[in-house]
Known about the structure:
Elements: E1 7-10, H1 14-25, E2 30-34, H2 47-58, E3 73-77, E4 90-93, H3 99-113, H4 122-137
Helix pairs in contact: 1-2
Amino acid sequence: xxxxxxVAVLGSGTMGARIAAHxxxxxxxxxxxxxxxxxxxxxxxxxxxxxxxxxxRKTKPAAFFEPSLSSLVTPGNFEDDLTRxxxxxWIIEAVVEDLEIKRKLFERVEAVLGGLPGSAEPxxxxxxxxxDVQHFVRGAHASDDxxxxxxxxxxxxxxxx
Length: 161
């Protein structure tokens, strides 16, 4: 089973900052990235990510099991630090619920990663994921169904939509 050594969390609001905190609680370092505030100078380009991290430190009940675990979270921004997603084993998106913002961010992440793996067939991806789940549960009785859907995006744009 693949070990997750580092995670990139995109969005440092309530959800993103707490996700980064729980990753830290599990001993997994993360990058916590967000936008640059308007009219930011060189010293405040990560102000939004720092505010999210600070909120996770101060929340009651505590998001971090121990205050020192917050050192496992590295704040940054989408302009200066987005290339760090290439260092991550897992990328979690937690930005504002706006599809256009998400689409643009995903395009930028895809560009950093050099594109998405296009050589894998959907059935191969589903088989690998199913095998990983079976390995994880180690024969335990399933109390819920596992439904998987894997689509191949061919980049066709629909006109008029």
